Amino acid sequence: MMIHTKEDVLTLIQEDEWMMDALAVAEELQLKDWCICAGFVRGKIWDTLHGFQRTELPDIDVVYYDATCLEKDKEKEYEHKLHRLFPGQPWSVKNQARMHIVNQVPPYDSMQEALSRFPETATALGVRLNQNKLELIAPFGVNDAVNLLVRPTPAYLHNLDRYHQRMKKKNWQKIWPNLTIQW
Does Transferase appear among the keywords (predicted)? Predict the structure, then answer.
């Protein structure tokens, strides 16, 4: 299958029953400004372009933005609820309103801004259901992901050592050999 556009990515996700089930369960949490992001979306694109069924996800990243509640315990509460609603999945929930502290950067003002600060453009992808309508959040578009290109986001251009360490650790080309990693 060829994937070129945002609409192609949405169709790909919409046709995946497991992904739609995960999104429906996450939507039940009624989080503010949320999505499931990173490998959930990126991996689906890369698996499809490599002709794979589904590679294992280390986690399903549910992110949201709620500046009114910065307690980490709330994130764990949401994770436990997801584990009850859709067991056996590697759920991870993070409030992006507090992640600037963890990442030692200026505060984000939205979930979309937080996505734009992810390490790679191909990872800065999120999807959510909003009243049964599938939405894709892609601050840098989908071109890099669908062209199997991994490169740093502008936020990481000043921290290329950290980006390089991440690329070595991830070793994505071992799983998806057609990737081009921009060093």
Answer: yes
Domain encompassing residue 76: 4-179
Cα four-point dihedral sign 137, 143, 147, 152: negative
Of the candidates 33, 24, 30, 27, the one whose C-alpha atom is nearest the C-alpha of residue 64 is 33
Residue 49 neighbours by CB distance under 10 Å: 18
Q: Per-residue pLDDT tens for 101-132?
A: 877 788 899 999 999 999 999 999 999 999 88
Cut 0.70: pTM above it: yes
DSSP state of 17: H
Q: Which two tokens stand for residue 37?
A: 């992001």
Taking 50 as the pLDDT cut, the residues of the chain under it are none
For 85-95, what is each residue's pLDDT tens digit?
Answer: 999 999 999 99
- The total of structural domains in the chain comes to 1
What's the rounded Cα separation, in Å, for the pair 128 and 33?
9
End-to-end CA distance of the chain: 28
- What would you measure as the largest C-alpha separation in the chain, in angstroms? 43
CA 23 to CA 41: how far, in whole Å?
A: 11
CA 143 to chain centroid, in Å, comes to 16
What's the DSSP call for residue 19? H
